[in-house]
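Newbie here. four chains, one complex. Structure please?
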Amino acid sequence: MSHNSFGTLFRVTTWGESHGPAIGCVIDGTPPLLALSEDDIQPWLDRRRPGTSRFVTQRQETDQVRILSGTYEGQTTGTPISLMIENVDPRSKDYSAIAETFRPGHADYTYHSKYGIRDPRGGGRASARETACRVAAGAVARKVLGPSVTIRGALRQIGVHGVSDDDWDWDAVGDNMFHCPDPAMALVWESYLDDIRKAGSSVGAVVEVHASGVPAGWGAPVYGKLDGDLAAGMMSINAVKGVEIGAGFAAARLRGEDAADEMLPGNDGPGFSDNHNGGVLGGISSGQDIVVRFVVKATSSILIPRRSVDTSGAATEVVTKGRHDPCVGIRAVPVGEAMMACILADHMLRHRAQMG
Amino acid sequence: MSHNSFGTLFRVTTWGESHGPAIGCVIDGTPPLLALSEDDIQPWLDRRRPGTSRFVTQRQETDQVRILSGTYEGQTTGTPISLMIENVDPRSKDYSAIAETFRPGHADYTYHSKYGIRDPRGGGRASARETACRVAAGAVARKVLGPSVTIRGALRQIGVHGVSDDDWDWDAVGDNMFHCPDPAMALVWESYLDDIRKAGSSVGAVVEVHASGVPAGWGAPVYGKLDGDLAAGMMSINAVKGVEIGAGFAAARLRGEDAADEMLPGNDGPGFSDNHNGGVLGGISSGQDIVVRFVVKATSSILIPRRSVDTSGAATEVVTKGRHDPCVGIRAVPVGEAMMACILADHMLRHRAQMG
Amino acid sequence: MSHNSFGTLFRVTTWGESHGPAIGCVIDGTPPLLALSEDDIQPWLDRRRPGTSRFVTQRQETDQVRILSGTYEGQTTGTPISLMIENVDPRSKDYSAIAETFRPGHADYTYHSKYGIRDPRGGGRASARETACRVAAGAVARKVLGPSVTIRGALRQIGVHGVSDDDWDWDAVGDNMFHCPDPAMALVWESYLDDIRKAGSSVGAVVEVHASGVPAGWGAPVYGKLDGDLAAGMMSINAVKGVEIGAGFAAARLRGEDAADEMLPGNDGPGFSDNHNGGVLGGISSGQDIVVRFVVKATSSILIPRRSVDTSGAATEVVTKGRHDPCVGIRAVPVGEAMMACILADHMLRHRAQMG
Amino acid sequence: MSHNSFGTLFRVTTWGESHGPAIGCVIDGTPPLLALSEDDIQPWLDRRRPGTSRFVTQRQETDQVRILSGTYEGQTTGTPISLMIENVDPRSKDYSAIAETFRPGHADYTYHSKYGIRDPRGGGRASARETACRVAAGAVARKVLGPSVTIRGALRQIGVHGVSDDDWDWDAVGDNMFHCPDPAMALVWESYLDDIRKAGSSVGAVVEVHASGVPAGWGAPVYGKLDGDLAAGMMSINAVKGVEIGAGFAAARLRGEDAADEMLPGNDGPGFSDNHNGGVLGGISSGQDIVVRFVVKATSSILIPRRSVDTSGAATEVVTKGRHDPCVGIRAVPVGEAMMACILADHMLRHRAQMG
């Protein structure tokens, strides 16, 4: 497919650089007659927005979304929905010093190697600012999915501190700065991240996203598998280095009798003894919760000097003095939810196409 | 995209059921004038073939591939390459007893839920037999990539026993039945798997695939990222539940100063202090080795009875008496290599299109 | 899209050369539970088959189709349908003399220019033999469309002799060798074509295809327009040089008050005063008959010597002594019908996806 | 593909309604390091702009384009180029009276049938205003093609008056309001169209577009044929009812010895005796000029009353009192050029991908 689009029928194309005049996306394939206004999208953007706590970048962006097409009198018309978010606080000066330097761990060198040119202002196209468009598209996708599908994300792990299943409380996620499902762990993280932040460092994290209410049958074997698309979608989020479904990498240790969730008679379709498969079997949803996890590496925009080279190939040292996130995983939670929503919406339409 | 195809420019479409007359694939977009005959493809298929040791299914398939189109006098012509492998040992009787039963951990129930019909013979389309087509396509992809790119796979972990980086020897991989890079571990696995096999059970595994010689610059941000496509490709392999790049899930624990591979002046482009990023930054190759890992769950085709339901919803019990693999991860190694080859070939062409 | 595939959801990929071992196609996205066997496909192939009259090429092909995947017990399963037709009468010797010559009006020179290699046997991939796969796919598409949609094709014009609307009788189409809707004109054509055939020449033709029973609403503005897809589909048939919808090129002369079909109240949706728009307005079906016309140029495989160059660039002369068609438009009728069927099936599924 | 996008590698997605806040497009896949600013795009938009003569709609749009992403310091970066044109003169009141009426010959009824909702202001998404985005994208495509490819369009026919080849002078095209290559005919048209305009009527036209300098070898058989993509592209322009290549429909009357352009030895590749094939053989360019023609029907937005029905199905009468074009074909000339440019740019990149 083309480079900046995803989805087959619910198709999202994003555009824009971190410090250009605006970023945005075009969403094609949305069914008509869905109620949609900026008020349906803005709350999700506000959740992702920078500057909301001391643990996320202090860039001041209002992230006001504007619908430029695709609706009429508050309803979708089935035509492309164009969404635009203006960049109001670019602060290009923060980045000018490193225009000739490749920041280690960033995409500076690879963009330069590929294109022979890059927009150095705030990471240009490689900036996590692009994920605002995913969140906006996710808000539309939730409209497509309707109220029967519920998507929830949480931060499962920051650095060395992970939440155990026993302490998991979805209701707690909204009560702290971290989307943490365990209030006690949220306090641990606060102290832990404060130390990291003060040290000018950063750390990785694991995000977990669940979708409930997805009926059995969505997905398209064998290369359009639901979990294959989820893997691609999550891996395409900035700084993600791994994706897993259900038991994920822990499945390596499981024996066949444990890995296979047993099936049990149920009143409303069969039940399952467990959900090691994360709601997907053979690339098709089973009716259980879809469970996806992904890991976000620590940002390399830190105050600790790191060795690098400049565009001439000479050795240099990089210290990022601008705004940054000690744990970019925090802001990845709403992004992961949005990707889940978009991919499910696409598969809902694909399923409907083939099955009527 | 359509359901049974992958790749944008090097595009593979597979077809066929486990117990139908044949399986095959069509490969479109191959450059012309590459030397190609069945002899270039057969050795890779032989590596994946069932019945090669007591640890893989004893189904007797010769897996003889036939080129039906796309070559002339031993060279590719740029037109679609159609490959066919006849099924010679289907043994439908092995499976007839369970046609009305949903095997736990398999795609029986989800295919049934989606389509209202399924081919119960050997898993039908959901059978791992489909992966033979990937291996065949991978052989063609290696031709496209040429000799400068080397792709190697190994089994990193079986059940609770993993190979450490210190003991890793690529040269050892071909010397044992497991594609194991550590001869000592291969002996451990042999004993371990014999016990599991005799117990009628199975176990999961982790496969690791490296690609060397990929130049900096391949990949297509932001939704056509090289690692995004690798994630989708590996996740689409049967029984895979997770994919990671470079440090992968271990990156959650890494601090920013450790996660970012430092850059160092080099004679032939910059060097890197490490490869936590698995050769991909911002979705584009960095010139380092591409490193991908994926987990394969234990097969649920085991002799140990498991609870399930039949198509009427009533409780039943499932025991798989037919041929099966105690560790399907073993045969996933050449499949992972093939997916790496196909995805790299596609990105090589995509890069060439945009960059000349 | 990739080169040898068409359709978004009902997706057809064809492969094979004129004189290779076989040709075939893979059809992906078909809904399950449709009754399908070789007997549903063979009659359509028989209609297109060479050797059925003295006005079509005398190559003796049985064109026996075989279903290799995608059905179980006589029903589609929703997985890829692989169809194969073996080439039984290739006669490579007919073509060996011209392997080094570019036949004027054929794709020899352009394939050579693009690929640097071509299969010279019978036109290789550029042979009209590829259209047998379209006809086979069209038979499956008709199953998807169901009995409410009727697709009919006819030959409207051969050389200077065209059928007028007043003499058009669909019931006559099957009664002559030409798919001619006017019995009197069929006699004219017989004499006219006999002269052309005896002169070793050939002539062009116009094919017209109608689809009845398509409901209002199929199509996808603005680049997935129903008529846009029909134009691409028909233009991709060998030797086609033009496509038109409804009034087509005659619309240049029409005034606005005549070009717009007036709408009239009706019992079952609105009626129309005429069908200048060929059943498509704004790229979406109107409920009227879809009317498409395309022109097929005369084949350049003739007995009359023509000037050309060889692969070294030197002047030469080309006379085609092998089997050939005096009017390839005759055999294009079932091909045009098949393309109509495939494109409508695709749009039926696309409409269902978005609209439920 | 998705509905509002075209192109495989040079991919254009358009959005926007006639009377919404703006229209625009996203262009993905552009090579980097091309000089590009608004000044490269604006002149082409000015050529298409309404209000430039009494023969095109008097809507006053400045059509000022703004580049929102994809360039840095005046050069393309290889990332998506987002272009936006604000709508400054929507005049919604002109159209409010007919919100409940289906205008004959327009897409009102088909959009309504498909979506159950439509934006009635100025035709909404079905407005020819969308073609401004194509023209903007075409300006970028010309940059991709570079100076060696020249694309020129002209109006070949208005109503009953056509330009003959003998009188064709490309240099005359810019000297009149009609893009007419024959100054004498331009005078005929002026008088002819004045009569039609005063009568409140409209008439159809034929546009012809040539591309010179395209090397032999571009195109992708068999479903990605260059002429197939051109046919789809031109047919997707508003009001187009037919497309032809080279001799087009006239080829029906040609004999094989005339239809095949003979090949002749040349200094810089072979020459051709004629160009009946319009520069495309077997879907691949021959090195000759690419010649495409398409017909644009008369607009139904006329002062002459026409019978129609309203959304309740009752009979009514439609008279379009707003601004309109007596011959929309005039403004289709730059649109046809732009589509040619975009499709050639896409095939240039596709060719480069496969052939290196």
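Moderator note: Chain C has a mean pLDDT of 94. Chain C touches chain B through 44 residues (CB under 8 Å). Thread marked as resolved.
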